[in-house]
Structures are given as C-alpha cells and as structure tokens.
Design a protein that fits this description.
The protein is an all-alpha fold and 224 residues long. 85% of the residues lie in helices and 0% in strands. Helix 6 (151-184) runs antiparallel to helix 7 (191-223).
Length: 224
C-alpha cells in the first residue's frame, strides 16, 4: 500500500500508469490469441486466452489497491473523484478484452468463411489499437502535469484522444459490415456459428467503446 502512496505523492497519474501497464499487457495478449484463432491454432490460442483472464485479474487487484490507498488527504492536480472514475473506465478496457477471450474459448469453429474471419481480425486489430492508445494517453497526461501544462504537451494529448475517437468510429463501420456479411451468409452458417461470431464482434467493439470512454474522461480532466 505504501508503494501506491508514494506514487500518488509524485503524481496522481503514476499509479494509473501502473494499472494501465497491465491493461496494455491484457490487450496485447488478446491480440496474440485472436491471431492464433484466425490461423486455426486453437490449442495454442486457448493457452493464450486463459492468460488474458489471468492478466485481467491482476488489473482488478491493482485497481482495488489504488482505490484503497487514494486518501482524500492528498492534494492533487486533479480531483480524487476524477482519478477514480478514470481508473474504473480504464479497467473496463481489460474487462472487455477478457470478455472477448471467453468467447474465443467457447468453441473451435471449423467452417467459418474466410472473409468473416478476416473481418473479425480487422476489428480486433483496430479495437486493440484504441486500447493501446489509451495507455499512451494516460502516460501523456502525466507528462502534461509534469510539464506544468505547457502547450506542446497538451496538443500531443489532444492528438492521442482524437486518434482514439477516430479508431472507435472506424470500428462502428466494421461492426455494421460484419453484421451484414453474417446475414448474407445465412445459408453457410448455422444459428450457433452466427451467434458465436456476432458475440465476438460485440465484445471486440466494446473494447474500443471503453477506450473511447476513457479518452473522453481524460479530455474532461484536461478541460477542468
């Protein structure tokens, strides 16, 4: 607990970066699992997907430790409530990655059309990109504070936030395209396969949604 107290004394964002480091590991591990799923290497994919679940648990534990150690006695550059709300949103990114990993584990599909798998991989790559950008955004927020809010660092932060919003918008388009494709292939896919594919897509889309929520919270903190 003392470790977190010392970090908060330096900057309110140092502990958030520690939590974000694990969230980043979680989404990067999911990225590996998704690639293995795409290649049909299900045995290896299952090991990696289970690791996603373990990392999400680590992120949860860090989140709880940060909450317990964030005393109202700290005088910080941002409000305690803002830090806690942001922490919750950042943690949701790892939760969404875990949800995707669980869906990858439920079956070993054999007959999913290649263009459907291609589109899911593309959605995963873009969603995980948004999650990685959230890590960059919180690291940059720390730089903004340490610099005393100089224009150059603030501009860089807004660039990252806009990049996250742009990726999230792209995911919405891919999500719609995938739904259309699944219904176009209703004669090639059975009900269970369609349900499975659409739920993987839903959870992947959720990663970018949570990344965007976290980015919006950073924007609010910047504007206060």
């Amino acid at each position: 607990m003392q470790v977190w107290t010392k970090l908060f004394a330096k900057s309110p964002f140092k502990p958030l970066i520690k939590h974000s480091d694990v969230v980043l590991q979680t989404v990067e591990t999911l990225e590996r699992a998704l690639r293995l799923w795409y290649e049909g290497n299900y045995e290896e994919m299952e090991k990696v997907a289970i690791e996603v679940d373990r990392l999400e648990d680590v992120a949860d534990r860090i989140k709880e430790e940060i909450r317990d150690s964030l005393s109202s006695k700290f005088l910080m550059a941002v409000a305690r409530e803002d830090v806690l709300i942001y922490l919750h949103m950042q943690d949701k990114v790892a939760d969404a990655a875990e949800d995707t990993a669980k869906w990858l584990l439920v079956k070993r599909p054999k007959d999913i059309p290649s263009d459907v798998k291609e589109l899911i991989l593309q959605m995963g790559t873009e969603s995980i990109k948004a999650a990685k950008l959230v890590h960059e955004a919180i690291v940059q927020m720390d730089r903004v504070i340490e610099s005393g809010f100089i224009d150059k660092e603030i501009e860089r932060e807004y660039e990252i936030i806009k990049a996250i919003e742009s990726v999230e918008s792209k995911i919405d388009g891919l999500d719609t395209k995938l739904m259309q494709l699944v219904f176009e292939k209703e004669n090639e896919l059975n009900w269970g396969e369609g349900f499975y594919i659409l739920n993987i897509a839903r959870t992947l889309s959720n990663i970018s949604d949570k990344a965007k929520d976290a980015a919006e919270r950073i924007r609010l903190m910047m504007n206060k």
